Amino acid sequence: MTFSARLATRTRLLTATLTTALGLTLTAGLSMATAGAAHADTEAGQQVMLKGSTTASYYWDDGSGRNGDTGLPASGKPMQKGLAASPSWPLLTEGYVLYNGKKAPFFVGDRGPGVPSNRGIMLDLDAKTFADLTGGTFDSDSLTVQGNGGKGHIKVDYVITKWGPGVGKKNHPVPFATGAWGEKDTDPAEPVTLAQPKPKAESKPASKPAAAEPKAESKPAPKSESKPAPKVAQSAGTEIAKAAATTEQGGLPLAATAALTLVAGSGAFAATHFVARRRTRTDA
Question: Where is the signal peptide (predicted)?
């Protein structure tokens, strides 16, 4: 095989591999999108036949006669997960219950509860579904739910998505003793639309207080440098006294010094006059 032929063969193989991988990726993506859409069909905004709330119990009638077993379900279907009993809804009615954020589908396959429905217990869930909702486990030997803290009754919300075709009350359940389960309902409840959840208000972070403007640093006022005051000439009296003392000793220069001091203290004229007089006396 020539180099060109080998290159062409490898190119065809690579193209086929990439095409297959791309096809698998697209198929997986479409499957995920379909699953998401199917889940969205049961969310808020869907029109349903009925919605409400009641107290639910559980049972497991498999025909064994254990734990109050009254025989196989009235619908003729075998006991199974998802098969519930209602005291008044038509058989084969479909819906689901909500409990503590969990959702469980059911269909009405049996009649009941009997006497408990007089006390407001209007739904009998199968034991396996009840265990899933309450966090317990189904004990197949005793036909009871274990490990759920002893719960035997729970408050549930119910949603009916489809009414069964037979007799029975197509509205909120009533006690078994009323006999509504055997009568054809000519005035069913009006369908309702599940409410859209209210959007949560966005919690905005609290606004931070505006940063205070930095205060100007208060600088201490510049201290005026205290310059030593010029020495004032000694008082004339003091200098005169010194001059007189010097004169008594006969010294002219000291007298002249005293006169100059007087110039600083009393004025040039008085000092000059004093010097002249002192010279006259000395010369005499």
Answer: 1-40
Phi, psi angles (nearest 5°) of residue 160: -95, 120
List, for residues 264-280, the tens digit of each pLDDT value.
444 444 444 544 555 54
Q: Is residue 57 within 8 Å of residue 153, measured between CB atoms?
A: yes
Q: On the CB side of 5, how many CA atoms lie within 13 Å of its CA? A: 2
Domain locations in the chain as residue ranges: 47-193, 236-283
Rounded to whole angstroms, how far apart are CA atoms 48 and 51?
Answer: 8
As given in the structure block, the two tokens for residue 96 are: 């689901």
- Chain-centroid distance of CA 226 in Å reads 67
How would CATH label the architecture of 47-193? Beta Barrel (2.40)
Radius of gyration (Cα) for the chain, nearest Å? 58
pLDDT of residue 150: 96
CA 18 vs. chain centroid, Å, equals 45
Closest CA to 109 of 168, 64, 51: 168
List b or e across 137-162, with b for residues whose CB sees 16 or more CB atoms inside 10 angstroms.
ebeeeebbbeebeeeeebebebbbbe
- CA–CA separation, 233 and 160 (whole Å): 120
Residue corresponding to tokens 């077993």: 69
Residues 109, 77: contact at Cβ < 8 Å?
yes
Which residues partner with 98 through β-bridges?
103, 157
* Model confidence, pTM: 0.56
Encoded tokens for 35: 């699953």
Indicate the helix (H) or strand (E) that contains 236.
helix 236-248
